[in-house]
Design a protein that fits this description.
By secondary structure, the chain is mainly alpha-helical. It contains 7 helices and no strands.
């Protein structure tokens, strides 16, 4: 599709859908995101919140700082787009979906390996509870974002939704650091990486179904 065709289709699609004022959109965004984040925090607290464990304080602070940095970058690249109507280039969004889970996993393993005994296997904790908790915390904010941006993406709605999903998975991972002391690689793959990728897949499916401007 060349630039003229894209412009013509965008104008035609915009005429078919009523537009919201910036103030109305902002109010809707604050309401939806505040509600979904409150629900996610409630789920986290009901699951136990910050749990005391054998982790040294410096280990927790280090893994939390790295995870928070990756999550902020994921939100800025995957969701925030400044004044531009168009999402980021395809290669940037695709790279984000791949690199965010890899970076979170690598940082968790690299930092935990500095502390003796922190990389041991916990057979009684294979990662299923972490998987369910990550999905439960990330699903509400992801759906809220999809609803906010419905009928608004002129290009790449599926990839945009996938980037939103992986960003929400990264944010959920931050809270998971406060809850889960396990750093064994198999546990991390099952309980931490897998749900982040599942949120990306779900975001891609929902984005393609609801966010496209030309539906």
């Amino acid at each position: 599709m060349n630039a003229e065709e894209l412009r013509a289709r965008t104008i035609a699609a915009a005429r078919r859908h009523s537009s919201r004022t910036h103030r109305a959109f902002r109010a809707h965004m604050i309401l939806l995101m505040t509600s979904s984040v409150a629900i996610s925090l409630a789920i986290f607290l009901l699951a136990g919140g910050l749990r005391a464990s054998r982790r040294p304080e410096s280990l927790l602070v280090g893994t939390l700082a790295g995870t928070l940095t990756v999550a902020v970058l994921a939100v800025l690249v995957g969701i925030h787009r400044g004044r531009s109507m168009l999402p980021r280039p395809r290669w940037q969004l695709a790279l984000l979906v791949v690199l965010v889970p890899a970076a979170l996993f690598a940082w968790k393993v690299a930092w935990s390996a500095r502390y003796p005994g922190m990389m041991v296997d916990w057979p009684e904790r294979p990662g299923l509870r972490c998987l369910l908790l990550t999905l439960a915390m990330g699903l509400g904010p992801l759906v809220s974002l999809i609803v906010l941006y419905r009928n608004s993406e002129p290009v790449r709605p599926g990839l945009v939704g996938g980037a939103m999903g992986v960003a929400m998975g990264a944010v959920a991972w931050v809270f998971l650091e406060l809850w889960c002391p396990v750093a064994f690689p198999r546990h991390l793959f099952i309980g931490h990486v897998a749900p982040t990728l599942l949120l990306a897949i779900l975001g891609s499916i929902l984005g393609r179904a609801t966010m496209g401007l030309y539906r």
